[in-house]
Known about the structure:
0% strand; 63% helix; mainly alpha; 101 residues
Amino acid sequence: xxxxxxxAICLKDLTTEEIQNYFIDVGLEDLWESxxxxxKITNFIRQPLFLSIMRVAHQQLDFEEWSNxxxxxxxxxxxxxxxxxxxxxxxxxxxxxGSSR
Length: 101
């Protein structure tokens, strides 16, 4: 069964200006400064999902290693791996402190 096109949501890629404004709005201007010259990274985070994932994972990312990924698939796998570790670490910390948030 094919999904109905009327129920589909299509998000446009973000512009460079929108990405920059996002980083400023969330207080990560330094992160933007460190990645804005990498066409590969900025093209990758034009998709809102990956921009959001990057925001969560940014403190653990090795930007040099990430920008040296040879394929888009490897870059996605690297970012998602960092994101997964970050989220599991947060979950583990919450369980240790008994936090329900």
